Amino acid sequence: MTTIVLSDICWPDTRQAPIPEGGVAVEDGCIAAVGTRPNLLARFPDAEVVDARGAVITPALVNAHHHMYGVLAHGIPLDEAPAGFWPFLENYWWPRVEDRLTHELIAASAEWACLEMVRSGVTTFYDCLEAPGAIPGGLDVIAEVVRGWGVRGVLSFEATERVSPENGQLGLRENVDFIAKCRERDDLVSGMMCFHTTFTCSAGFIQRAFGLAADAGARVHMHLSEGTYEPQYCLDRFGVRPVFYYDQLGVLGDHVLASQCVQIDAEEIALLAERGVSVSHQPISNCEVGGGLAPVPEMLAAGVNVALGSDGYVNNFFEVMRAAALISRARLLDPGAVAAQTAWTMATQNGARALGFDDLGVLSPGAPADLLLIASDLPSPLAAHNLAEQLLLWRNPPDVESVMCAGRWLMRDGEVLGVDPEAVRRRVSQAAARLWGGG
């Protein structure tokens, strides 16, 4: 069965101009054709036609860095705010959140995260779970939820030696086993190797993580220089900054996804580009933890593939895109530092590439049919010259009318299909209350 989705404006590739009066044809979960309304109707005369006039067709969004359990910490009571990045981890995030996570809490937060992502136009995401008391089996819990939602999830466990060497090895094994199980199923859920960072993982542990990933043919993720703590840590102990430390270990390459990369210098940026490392940028959470303002335009100019992530903090992905563009413009006193079109590309094609998907983030023949219908009822006319900026600045999740992932509608006309949003909200609210109470 072929479905044609037709609209006033179809924007299949964020690097190129949109197609007026255009659309896409969908067959067997993939894009069969892209073109104008007359062309598609003539080519597929027996197709089901979805008339999406009043909306813009765009590729679905990619969240390249999520902590789905992060919602449980929203509004958590604190005696006082953390005084810096290290106190944020040591006195708050680790003991109050991650060390208390159970399978039940993880499942409830994953349900809510999937609901938020679908409403926000995200159909592909990377999630990083650190819950030292929830392994083995933590990733299987998330995978069950994600499969039920029909979104495309790349899942990992953030292995770390901060609890104990034994717990660290258990975390690595969680990733290896999960990667293998996902390949046996061959569906929309896959795995990635992950460890935390240089100040919670020894050199031998880091090299073992990369070795296991190589054996499994998997990509590797780590947090990198989220604040000033890690660069100073590496300088004090190893005599070099973090990117050069990893290079000395011989582990950098195009199979690596480094998140944050806030406190990196020009030489580190050049080395990331040379090694082909992808970076996920989390502009809003970087501000929340006081980590700083990442040098995004500098990374892009050097040729680094920079994607976007919510970090499980503010998961409205339109806000994430806006922040990525506007914060850099303010930092450099340059309104053109990150163009709107660049922000959209970071949220689509760059994110897909960072996660190892060569055919996502665009609507082209043979690519998975992951697309959005975004309401075009703006107060001023949409046109090719202003489409990216208008959608970036003045659209939000309520303006996302419909969402398709792999040819399946997850949301139609603003309604998430087959889901009771209020029941999902109640469940995660109850889970957050248990976490806050320590139960």
Please sum up the structure shown.
This protein is 41% helix and 21% strand. The chain is of the alpha/beta class.
Structure description:
By secondary structure, the chain is an alpha/beta fold. Helix content is 41%, strand content 21%. It folds into 2 domains: 111 residues, Roll (Urease, subunit C, domain 1); 294 residues, Alpha-Beta Barrel (TIM Barrel), CATH 3.20.20. The strands form 4 sheets. It has a 7-stranded mixed beta sheet with strand order 3-2-7-17-18-19-20, covered by helices on one side.
The CATH topology of the largest domain is TIM Barrel
Oligomer: single chain
**Shape category:** globular
Alpha carbon gyration radius: 21 Å
What percent strand? Answer: 15-25%
Strands across the major sheet, in which order? 3-2-7-17-18-19-20
Name the CATH superfamily assignment of the largest domain: Metal-dependent hydrolases
The CATH first-level class of the largest domain comes to Alpha Beta
**Which spans have pLDDT < 50 for at least 5 consecutive residues?**
none
**CATH architecture descriptor of the largest domain:** Alpha-Beta Barrel
Category by helix and strand content: alpha/beta
Give a count of the beta strands, DSSP E runs of length 2 or more.
Answer: 20
Q: Mean of the pLDDT scores?
A: 96
Strand count, sense and closure of the main sheet?
7 strands, mixed
